[in-house]
Design brief:
Length: 454
Amino acid sequence: MLKKNKLCGFNSFLVMCLLTTSVMASDSVDKSASQSFTLDQAIDYAIANNPDLQIAIQRIEQADAQLGVALSAFYPQVSAKVGYETSNNPAQVFSMIVAQRDFNSNSIANINDPGYRQNFRPEIVGKVSLFRGGQDYQNSKAAALGIEAAEFERSSIHNALIQAVTATYYAHLAAIEAQKNAQNAIVAIESELKQTQLKHDAGTVLKSDVLSLEVKLAEAQESQIRTANGIETAKVNLVNLLGLPSLSVFNISSSSIFNSPKFTPSFNELLEQAMGQRPEVKAAAKQVEIAQYKVKSAQGAYLPKADAYVSYGQNSQTPGFSSSKENVTAGVAVEMDIFSGFSTQQQLRTAELKATEALETERKTKLAVEQEVKVAHLKLQESLARVHVTDLSVQSADEALRLVKEERKAEVVTVTRYIEAEVARNTAQSNSIAAHYDALSAEAALKKAIGAWK
């Protein structure tokens, strides 16, 4: 008896500690920050604030910047520079004299011993690529596809985020309903325990009935502890998905808790939708195209390269500018690698291997999507069947409890049988609530599997 009372008292203490901790955490946060979310509002808030989705958006911007880098190869490149040199090398000095337009008859007399001379050359150089083996074109096409791939990756995160928020939202509501049932069970058992204790004191019931009720009370209190922890866990997960601080205060509201999903189309129809809609499949296909363009770019390294250039500047012994000493050079340069130490060959091989890897990644992605759709489809079918079974079990449990209550009044059943009926009814209700929320979560998982949220 003493041990049972201690057990009940300890469980009550744990419940009080858990609830007190929750209240203290709530009091430590500014009450003005409290928000109330329906499912749609929670999804909208997560889309606007979830860090993973914001990172994906930044990757799209990065891909767009990479396209700009690739397209820059089609524009002229202009640079300005200033050079200074001094030398007593006869050849160098003679070149400076001619470039500075100071050549005269005396220059020949001193050609072998010109002394030191300096040369200032400010100039502007322009260069444009005429042909690079098609590499610039192939790289620009790959960069453009990179933007599309990044957008599909964002869609993938968006799709998964909505499913995660939905599942966590329903898990939170299910935990709240489970806690209500646990609290109702505690109230019912405590009331019956109080009456039974009085009857035992009066000598009309056995001590075993009191002990049985104390055990049932401890079990109900343990269930309340688990459900309270489930609420907090779901809240922590939801806070993380919404991108809120860990101590944020918010409420969850729902308009149609038991609006169960309908039966879904066949697996083949769902798989066809998934292959046409899932952003992961589309992103993998884009990566294959990107890899193929990279192969063509690497092949272009075997072809000649041609550049046109023009240089405008002046040569003088002083930094000043004089139009009479300006020099202009223009031309076209063509070059081709004859032997690069097998570098070009290895770069092409690397690109080809990456293309093969991209093809295998695409195949793997399709297999993973097919498996996900199949599992989600089976899970929803199971959940819908559970909803039907648990709804029937609640009706049976309610009727059984009603009959046991009448028998209890007539004192033809033991208190243990009455408590068992009460617990069975509460368990049936908890199972029914969990089944309905599991069905809603399974529907969300199937929607995610077919890429319904883009």
